[in-house]
Design a protein that fits this description.
about 70 residues, alpha+beta, three-stranded antiparallel beta sheet, 2 helices
């Protein structure tokens, strides 16, 4: 198990934008493109200012599990 570093730098790569409605249980992720943490953070600030019904945050893309290692 790998511990995720809590310190994020603006040039860290592989971030997307995740969101949820503030008053409902609907959530989603914008998986169209990956960006650096700094780019994602700025985009989230813009989206939060323009969409009062949602909240947005940068989220690290996790690599797909390597199931083939377990079944070889």
């Amino acid at each position: 198990m790998v511990a995720e570093n809590l310190i994020r730098r603006d040039n860290d790569s592989d971030y997307i934008i995740a969101w949820k409605l503030k008053y409902d249980f609907e959530t989603g992720k914008m998986k169209d493109n990956t960006m650096t943490y700094g780019e994602a953070r700025k985009k989230c600030e813009e989206l939060n200012a323009g969409n009062p019904e949602k909240t947005f945050w940068p989220e690290k893309v996790k690599p797909a599990p390597e199931w083939h290692i377990l079944y070889e």
